[in-house]
Amino acid sequence: MAKQANAWIMQKKKKWSLMVLALFSLSTAMVFLMRSAFDSCNANSSSRFEEGRDRAAEAVRVVRSNAGPNPLQFMKSKLVLLVSHELSLSGGPLLLMELAFLLRGVGAEVVWITSQKPPESDEVIYSLENKMLDRGVQVLSAKGQKAIDIALKADLVVLNTAVAGKWLDAVLKDNVPRVLPKVLWWIHEMRGHYFKVEYVKHLPFVAGAMIDSHTTAEYWKNRTRERLGIKMPKTYVVHLGNSKELMEIAEDSVSRRVLREHVRESLGVRNEDLLFAIINSVSRGKGQDLFLRAFHESVQIIKEKKFQVPSLHAVIVGSDMDKQTKFETELRNFVIEKRLQDCVHFVNKTLTVAPYLASIDVLVQNSQARGECFGRITIEAMAFQLPVLGTAAGGTMEIVVNGTTGLLHPVGKEGVASLTNNIVKLATHVERRLTMGKKGYERVKERFLEPHMVQRIALVLREVLQKAKSHANS
């Protein structure tokens, strides 16, 4: 009996291993942009933790007490039009696709429109459109009478990102006032060039705005008032949540071990080595250059002080081997100059980040300026029980508890010394690193799961639908 039991266990582990390896092979073949790559957002908000706190607490309470009916069930048979400024494997469009599938899951009729498409054929767009069609999401042209008819008939219209605002005047024209009362505007951007009247002039008149973090919401409130002289509509803060699929991998020890071994072998990193990773599209705003400086300095400190620690490695996930930018060339030249070729690794852009999260020991979230609007990769890393070294800016401050689930450092060049010290701290204190990872996982389970996000979105959609109905009746 014991031999049979052992054989069954080995067979099950082998099955999991093959499945995970298949997933990894698929992910490494996809040279795509990560869904966590959002535009940067502002950290200058003293009230970010106050606004919307009651709503967030209510969402957590309901999720805990009610594991029964889907909170989006009231959307059954509702017609929802989703308008995205683009269809790509970046954060905004992928989030809107997630919403599309959640709504389809409860029986809503969902129509997708992409307002800006390249004139030539695009394999990514083709693949994503077919993925939506397979899930029952209708895909329409952004222009033409059919798009107008759907917008007028829809119970709810979701504009995704500020740039999607241009679609209103370009397509709806005289019908814009009839559609605005049922528009929910989902905003992710925070860069200054998005604050243009042509994008957001209709923002004060929509039913509501949904934003990923309190910091972002506060920044939009202040910036639109001071720069454009317009007032934000009622604004709802909805923190994102990890998908069930990612959590299943994160919580399966066999999957994690197989992925860890496979990725580390491909990078030439031993199992006992310490691997620090930054997983973002390679750009100056994501701070890969400052991270590499801090990593180099931390390696030097460890050598000088003769700390007995495993070899340190850094991995940059989000590269583009085929189209190296000037910035990425600077990164690679720095690695050569400092003779870090054996311990710094560049990995192509990828949609599937689970293999890399399973293989690393610490996530570095080094987004600069106003930080991340939210930073989904942060909560994904925490699901894998990884401590996070993040900039003290933007949505990261609403996720990472400094000193408990990770360590924060200032943005800019002045933050390099602090990040260096934090790398050394986690490299030389195994127990602290592991404890922070466990605390991060507990925080994810407490408030950053898909059911939490669904509950938050449901509260928003219900209120927006009520507003639209009241306006129609009046």
From TrEMBL:
<protein>
    <recommendedName>
        <fullName>Glycosyl transferase family 1 domain-containing protein</fullName>
    </recommendedName>
</protein>
<dbReference type="GO" id="GO:0016757">
    <property type="term" value="F:glycosyltransferase activity"/>
</dbReference>
<dbReference type="InterPro" id="IPR041693">
    <property type="entry name" value="Glyco_trans_4_5"/>
</dbReference>
<dbReference type="Pfam" id="PF16994">
    <property type="entry name" value="Glyco_trans_4_5"/>
</dbReference>
<keyword id="KW-0808">Transferase</keyword>
<keyword id="KW-0328">Glycosyltransferase</keyword>
<dbReference type="Pfam" id="PF00534">
    <property type="entry name" value="Glycos_transf_1"/>
</dbReference>
<feature type="domain" description="Glycosyl transferase family 1">
    <location>
        <begin position="261"/>
        <end position="442"/>
    </location>
</feature>
<dbReference type="InterPro" id="IPR001296">
    <property type="entry name" value="Glyco_trans_1"/>
</dbReference>
